[in-house]
Amino acid sequence: MRTRVKVCCIQSLEEARTAIAAGADALGLVARMPSGPGPISDAAISEIAAFAPPPIATFLLTSETTAEAIAAHVGATGPNTVQIVSHIDWRESERLARLIPQVRRVQVIHVEDSKAVDLIDVYEPHVHAFLLDSGRPSAAVAELGGTGRQHDWSVSAEFVARSKRPVFLAGGLSAKNVSEAVSLVRPFGLDLCTGVRTDGRLDLKKLTDFMSAVMRAGTSVASTQPGL
């Protein structure tokens, strides 16, 4: 099983085409957020989601925190996957699974310390996958992704080992460290935004270098990691 790559913070159809041509498996479409790079309008998200051909996954990154609001956001934009960037109440996660069973649901876990592993049992029954990031949801202005910071990968490795769901790794990834990330954490997939951008724009050379580095890292994903 090869390591999947999700290119996040896609800004336009042109960037979507570039990411897909470079070998991306998924596109991240960032809606309104309290902070961080890459938000675009719901209309733009809908346009890109409709454009992306199978089997490309389109991830709506939503900051909504109730099942009804998340489901409505998905309905308005049309992605095949929703990435829930806040640590929502588990009852909302359970309710969301009933409201949109046809849409893949990915719960972000912000790895601030080793307690992140405790959240596996909270969400695992209700989601299809996890994404480990380096946000600080409790900050004065909540950070819910796109920080460009690397967190403690030893915690991420433990999370992957314990999770029965596939796990994406995000936070400070680049061509220079992706081999180490794959070797240590052994995630199902990798997620990046700032690491392949220059002055806010998708940088084809950085993206190509990253994809090449992923290929060189080999198919070292743990065989126990299930597919999404």
Question: What attributes does this structure have?
Answer:
228 residues, alpha/beta, 8-stranded parallel beta barrel, TIM Barrel, globular, two-stranded antiparallel ribbon
Please explain how this structure is put together.
By secondary structure, the protein is an alpha/beta fold. It has a single domain, classed as TIM Barrel (Alpha-Beta Barrel). It has helices at 13-21, 42-51, 67-77, 90-99, 120-123, 153-162, 178-185, 204-217; strands at residues 4-7, 26-30, 57-62, 81-84, 104-110, 129-133, 167-170, 189-192, 197-198, 201-202. An eight-stranded parallel β-barrel has the order 1-2-3-4-5-6-7-8, surrounded by four helices. α3 crosses α4 (90-99) and α7 runs parallel beside α8. The longest helix is centred in the last third of the chain and has 14 residues, at 204-217.
- According to CATH, the fold-level topology is TIM Barrel
Secondary-structure arrangement, i.e. CATH architecture: Alpha-Beta Barrel
Mean pLDDT: 92
Q: Which structural category fits the helices and strands? A: alpha/beta
Helical proportion?
25-40%
What does the overall shape look like?
A: globular
**CA-to-CA gap between the ends?**
12 Å
Estimated share of beta-strand residues: 15-25%
Helix-strand sequence? EHEHEHEHEHEHEHEEEH
Low-confidence segments: 220-224
Task: Supply the number of helical segments.
Answer: 8
How many domain units? 1
Radius of gyration over C-alpha positions, nearest whole angstrom: 16 Å
Largest sheet: 8 strands, parallel, barrel
Strand order of the largest sheet: 1-2-3-4-5-6-7-8
CATH homologous superfamily placement = Aldolase class I
Under CATH at level 1, the class stands as: Alpha Beta
Number of strands: 10
